[in-house]
Amino acid sequence: MRVLGVDPGLTRCGVGVVEGVAGRPLTMVGVGVVRTPADAELSHRLLAVEQGIEQWLDEHRPEFVAVERVFSQHNVRTVMGTAQASAVAMLCAARRGIPVALHTPSEVKAAVTGSGRADKAQVGAMVTRLLRLAAPPRPADAADALALAICHIWRAPAQNRLQQAVALHTAHATKGRTA
């Protein structure tokens, strides 16, 4: 499974591609940051994020895109930019028919470190260890994008089984009502 992780942001949008399957060693395929100038118009910044993500999709051809689920922050301006960059990433994937998964920051931290309250340094250290890198990816947005991809690879099999079970239950329940 090849996953593009996206840590959305307007100034720095972290992107990272990881390949592998749950229970086996994972491989980093690529990592980076799509940057936009803080003084540029919002529309131009969103276009730059879109172009950057499209380049990553073209180059790495992921099977899935994992995006950090935007959560409420105290700074509304920051959360709005993050949500807009997140929407751009989902749009780019949807345009190509690539499935998108959203993971909360605490889900990602728990998957990668074992604690949903881990700090950025702990996440970076575990990403470095799990992908057998010489040093943590910089900036932290890049490490977070890799953590999202790792989280998805590890969580997707269980999520798929849950979705199949719900679909089967729903089908049986519907069939029972019509009989």
Describe this structure in words.
- The chain contains five helices and five strands; from the N terminus they run βββαβαβααα.
- The chain has helices spanning 42-60, 76-95, 105-113, 120-130, 140-178; strands at residues 2-7, 12-19, 27-35, 64-68, 100-103.
- β2 and β3 form a beta hairpin.
- The chain starts with a strand and ends with a helix.
- α3 (105-113) packs across α5 (140-178) and α4 (120-130) packs across α5.
- It is of the alpha/beta class.
List strands and helices in order, with pairings.
Blueprint: E1 2-7, E2 12-19, E3 27-35, H1 42-60, E4 64-68, H2 76-95, E5 100-103, H3 105-113, H4 120-130, H5 140-178
**Helical proportion?**
40-55%
The strand order across the widest sheet is 3-2-1-4-5
Overall pLDDT, averaged? 91
Give start-end ranges of low-pLDDT stretches. none
Shape: globular
Helix count, DSSP H or I runs of 4 or more residues: 5
Structural category: alpha/beta
Cα distance spanning the termini:
41 Å
Biggest sheet details = 5 strands, mixed
Rounded to an integer in angstroms, the radius of gyration calculated over CA atoms is: 17 Å
Q: Can you give keywords for this protein?
A:
55% helix, five-stranded mixed beta sheet, 179 residues, globular, 5 helices, alpha/beta
Question: Could you give a quick summary of the protein structure above?
Answer:
The protein has helices at residues 42-60, 76-95, 105-113, 120-130, 140-178, and strands at 2-7, 12-19, 27-35, 64-68, 100-103. The chain is of the alpha/beta class and 179 residues long.
